[in-house]
Design a protein that fits this description.
Blueprint: H1 3-13, H2 19-35, H3 41-83, H4 93-99, H5 112-126, H6 128-133, E1 136-137, E2 141-145, H7 151-158, H8 166-188, H9 207-213, H10 215-222, H11 242-257, H12 282-285, H13 291-301, H14 307-328, H15 332-354, H16 356-381, H17 390-407, H18 411-414, H19 418-429, H20 436-442, H21 446-454, H22 460-463, E3 468-470, E4 474-476, H23 480-492, H24 495-516, H25 527-535, H26 540-546, H27 559-565, H28 568-585, H29 591-598, H30 606-614, H31 619-637, H32 641-669, H33 680-690, H34 694-697, H35 711-716, H36 718-738, H37 745-756, H38 766-781, H39 785-800
Antiparallel strand pairs: 1-2, 3-4
Helix pairs in contact: 1-2, 2-3, 2-11, 3-4, 4-16, 5-14, 5-28, 7-8, 8-14, 14-15, 15-16, 16-29, 17-23, 19-24, 19-28, 19-32, 20-24, 21-24, 24-28, 27-28, 31-32, 32-33, 36-37, 37-38
Length: 825
């Protein structure tokens, strides 16, 4: 036994060191000694001790730095949650802690979700030229990018290979600037990612691919691809020796293949990956010797060789981690526990003082807040989308994606109500509202989109390059083919481009209005605009700094110029404010709304899949109510009754008017005359349509919805309705046949096809598709087809007073739509 082993044994026996730590130190020592195996044994032992000392010293220094950062964050958090007040002026640290994770202007401090979006926006601004150059094809989406062949040259330039392609060199330079900016932000927040020149691209490890290959095969494959001369220890910066690489690769394989469990023993506490600050360094530790090696590894062991997605995925992951560390400290999960305990302590003290029902209420409220914090934090980290049973989760996700592709082809018409919510949100924020619709339409243009991204407004198609984010639906997960199909239908229908244009239009309008008032002090601004800045924690001093920045093109106050000349943190607070206010103009999914519906239910479980199916297409209505309902509730709590009534009235009027337009356009797209606008039931349906709950408007005075299902099926979700239709088509007809009853297979087959063919109800194709093809197929398959078509006409005439200008069963329109029908019989 060596002297070093004796020291470790003595330390363990004296309880100065745990056996696990002793084993780890012994392994490190042996690894360092192996690196000097070609020298004298005594020299190798002494050098190994020095190397181990340097490593431990660097690690201790990093831990001290992280501890200081953690203490600073805890102090700031404590001050923020204890100083925050509700709209009625009460202290509520449970709600304040939740707002630290995500808020929409209810607090003057940054949130994790808000900071994350701001970082992504700033990164997209740095890479705007590249994002435009490699934009998605309008026809094929991510399957075909414009100028995709140039990605290989960008990859080579990122690895330092001179391709002679000036454009590729410039785009690779933008990528290098962006990932270096992210690296420095990560390290400043407590991380330790070493700097490398011509690092190239981040590598992704597919745990299943590593397990399938096995350790020895994986090591044999990756070793020739690595440039050992450029690999460095992240803390000490010392070079990695040839004799060390084998043991290091062993550790990496076991860590990836076991999802980190190879480094941990079972304990009586939940297992997590630990401090975020200690992660991400592996993306720079393994250095590939050339772009071809990197690409080959990604294809074999990284889940594919998509260069663009690798870059965008790295930006998204780094932004998520940086935001969490900057707001919550180097170990955010530990801070979450601190927040929950702070809430519990406050509640217990209140319960002890108050007793009785008041005390019980305080404890219930605290535990509700703790549960909400756990759920929202899990959503932010992506843990709520980690399936329990991947097979079941993939199957249900595919089914929901197919339903989306089959049903939401006309959702773009519903999204016209964005013009109404945009007008209300603009007025509340202090922006001109009269040009909202015109600016949204202008946002479809390439120039406006590029201007918006360069200004720091997120390009959704780049942010969601791994998992598509679909409005009205949420994340399109599951098998790639199914989510791709849904994404294409939502794009072809115009919903995705419209949503992006509306977000960009609002953001640019905000920056324009800020520039228009740059010559004024904050207190001299119009009341609404001034209140917006103050609500988001930007006061007189901050505004006086911001308005010193140069105006882009003489008309926009952009975060980029504020960051460059004034203060990067202030620039991001400004961008957080703009993005939060945009959510009111164009309601989209959020962590808080998603977890209100799903709680902590994961995919691949009975409850998780049932809830996801139940809430499909209801997410938009939920976030609409959460955002605007919360804003009105705060006005009432602050006793601003007139302002609350005015806001509610403006929101109701604008969304109802645009909802009415949507309903009429949908009727025409279905081959019917517009509905009678003098009928009170029409305006009830228009009100729900404008609030994102249009399908429920069908039940105001009718007992079936527009897709043929009853209220129970609609409430249960579209997947329940499809399952019922499929049962009737298959087992139902088989039972009828076995019982000697008359089957309706032909009729039900066509009915099933109408609601389940992806893209079949894209608004500008739907009518011709149904009349010219499906109706004619129904004539062949259903002897009662003509009677069914007449019943359909009678139903809409009786329930909604509508006649068909292109009647079911006919192959051409009988006349033009009658606009006079809108004004009554």
């Amino acid at each position: 036994m060596s002297a070093f082993d004796d020291c470790l044994k003595t330390a363990v026996e004296a309880d100065e060191l745990t056996r696990a730590d002793a084993d780890r130190l012994r392994q490190e020592y042996e690894r360092f000694r192996a690196a000097h195996a070609n020298t004298d044994p005594s020299f190798a032992a002494e050098q190994a001790k020095r190397d181990l000392y340097e490593s431990l010293s660097a690690d201790a220094a990093q831990r001290r730095r992280q501890a200081k950062l953690a203490l600073k964050n805890i102090q700031q958090l404590d001050a923020d949650i204890r100083s925050w007040r509700t709209a009625s002026g009460r202290s509520d640290i449970g709600t304040a802690a939740l707002l630290k994770l995500e808020h929409f202007g209810e607090a003057p401090f940054s949130s994790v979700a808000g900071r994350q979006r701001a970082i992504v926006g700033m990164a997209h601004a740095k890479m705007e030229t590249m994002l435009h150059h490699f934009r998605r094809s309008a026809l094929l989406g991510d399957k075909k990018r414009w100028n995709a062949a140039d990605l290989d040259n960008v990859l080579r330039e990122a690895f330092g290979v001179d391709t002679g392609d000036a454009a590729a060199k410039a785009m690779a330079g933008a990528w290098k600037e962006t990932h270096e900016w992210l690296r420095q932000r990560f390290n400043a927040a407590g991380g330790a990612i070493g700097e490398l020149v011509n690092w190239g691209m981040p590598q992704h490890h597919d745990a299943r691919a590593l397990r399938n290959a096995g350790l020895s095969t994986w090591k044999e494959a990756i070793r020739p691809m690595l440039d050992l001369s450029r690999m460095r220890h992240p803390l000490t910066g010392k070079a990695i020796d040839e004799k060390e690489i084998g043991a290091i690769l062993d550790e990496i394989w076991h860590s990836v293949a076991t999802d980190g469990w190879s480094r941990h023993e079972p304990l009586r506490q939940a297992f997590g990956r630990g401090s975020l600050a200690n992660q991400r360094a592996e993306h720079r530790f393994l250095v590939f010797k050339d772009p071809e090696s990197w690409l080959q590894y990604q294809r074999d062991f990284g889940g594919g060789g998509d260069i663009f997605s690798s870059m965008m995925g790295h930006v998204n992951m780094m932004a998520k981690d940086i935001a969490a560390m900057e707001v919550l400290g180097p170990n955010p999960s530990g801070t979450i526990e601190w927040l929950k305990q702070a809430i519990e302590k406050s509640a217990q003290e209140k319960a002890a003082r108050s007793g009785g029902k008041a005390g019980a209420k305080a404890l219930d409220k605290a535990r509700t807040a703790q549960k909400r914090i756990d759920d929202v934090w899990a959503s932010i980290r992506g843990e709520l989308e980690t399936p329990v049973s991947s097979r079941w989760a993939a199957g249900f996700a595919a089914a929901r994606s197919l339903v989306t592709a089959s049903v939401l082809g006309s959702a773009a018409i519903s999204s016209l109500s964005d013009a109404g919510t945009s007008m209300v949100a603009r007025r509340f924020a202090g922006l001109p509202a009269q040009n909202a619709l015109h600016e949204i339409v202008r946002g479809f243009g390439s120039y406006t989109r590029r201007e918006a991204v360069a200004a720091g407004l997120i390009l959704d198609s780049a942010r969601h390059s791994f998992h598509a984010q679909a409005r009205y639906v949420g994340t399109l997960s599951g098998p790639e083919w199914a989510s791709y199909l849904s994404d294409r239908v939502l794009t072809y229908s115009g919903l995705t481009p419209w949503t992006q244009a509306a977000k960009h239009a609002f953001g640019l309008a905000f920056m324009t209005e800020a520039a228009n008032h740059a010559g004024k002090a904050l207190k001299d601004m119009p009341d609404a605009l001034q209140a917006t800045f103050r609500r988001h924690g930007i006061g007189d001093r901050q505004w006086d700094l911001m308005r010193r920045a140069n105006m882009h093109d003489g008309r926009l106050l952009r975060p980029a110029e504020i960051a460059e000349r004034i203060d990067p943190k202030l620039a991001e607070r400004y961008l957080e404010m703009i993005q939060a206010e945009t959510d009111f103009a164009v309601p989209d999914s959020s962590h808080r709304s998603r977890t209100l519906a799903l709680g902590s239910a994961k995919p691949g479980t009975i409850s998780g899949e049932a809830l996801r199916s139940f809430f499909q297409f209801k997410s938009f209505g939920a976030v609409f109510v959460l955002l605007h309902g919360m804003r009105m509730a705060n006005m009432v709590a602050a006793r601003q009754y007139a302002a609350g009534a005015s806001y509610a009235g403006a929101l109701l009027l604008s969304t109802t008017l645009f909802g009415a337009v949507s309903l009429q356009l949908k009727s025409i797209a279905a081959g019917r005359d517009p509905r009678d606008a003098t009928d009170p039931a029409f305006w009830g349906a228009a009100m729900l349509q404008g609030g994102g709950l249009g399908i429920y408007g069908d039940f105001l005075f009718a007992n079936v919805n527009r897709y043929g299902g009853g209220f129970g099926q609609t409430l249960g979700g579209p997947l329940v309705q499809r399952a019922s239709d499929f049962w009737n088509l298959t087992a139902g007809n088989a039972i009828q046949l076995a019982s000697g009853e008359k089957t309706n297979f032909g009729k039900e087959l066509v009915k099933f096809a109408r609601g389940n063919i992806p893209g079949g109800n894209i608004w500008y194709l739907r009518l011709a598709w149904e009349r010219v093809f499906l109706d004619q197929v129904q004539y062949l398959a259903d002897p009662q087809a003509n009677r069914a078509f007449k019943r359909q006409q009678k139903f809409f005439a009786r329930e909604f007073g509508q006649e068909y200008f292109w009647a079911p069963g006919t192959t051409r329109p009988q006349r033009a739509p009658s606009t006079g029908a809108m004004f009554g019989p």
